[in-house]
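Hey, resending since the last one bounced:
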Amino acid sequence: MLAFLKDDIRAVFDRDPAVRSIFEVIFCYPGFHAMLFYRFSHWLWNKNRTFMGRFVSHLGRFFTGIEIHPGAKIGRGFFIDHGMGVVIGETAEIGENCTLYHGVTLGGTSWAKEKRHPTLGNNVVVGSGAKILGPFNVGDDSKIGSNSVVVKEVPAMATVVGIPGRVVLSGEKRVGVDLQHGELPDPVAKAVSCVFDQIQRLEEQVVGLRDEQDKLKAELVQYRVDEEDTVS
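The structure tokens again:
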């Protein structure tokens, strides 16, 4: 468990430029505090001390505003940035070096006692307010945009945005944990850009039609002049 906590501390230094010292992480980072509660509650859960595991988890929720079920499985290097409102369900699984921002929910869509929460691969970044709902996989090196609602499987190295979530980038090569949440595409800006491109194409077509019309008018005038000359 100590090895996991060391990796959790290292993750803060890797992914938060605001951190100044290890003491700041230990005393001032609720995301790290939530992992302390989770690692201990998960250990109790695996020892079949389910009530104590839930109780420790509940204390963690009370002190940090982050709710992680002790039955969830979370890998090394996990980082929750500004974590208020994060919810991670019982059967959720999270790979190594993943990052969650505030307000993220890894939730279920079933009341059955089965796998009902998502599985995140390695190096996944989930933006603030995003909801990932259901027992499906989110591939390695994927990004989920802020406030997206994802209800189906996400391929590796994909970027998902919107409600419902849809893949807007796929197959990009990303290595390690150098994933920047700010690199996520802005779907509104992309849509506006497409509209401007369409307007430009329409303007070009209008100019072409106007030139063709002027050419036809000139030919008609010349035809009438030739007809008058022939008659005279």
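The two ends are 107 Å apart (CA to CA).

Sorry for the duplicate.
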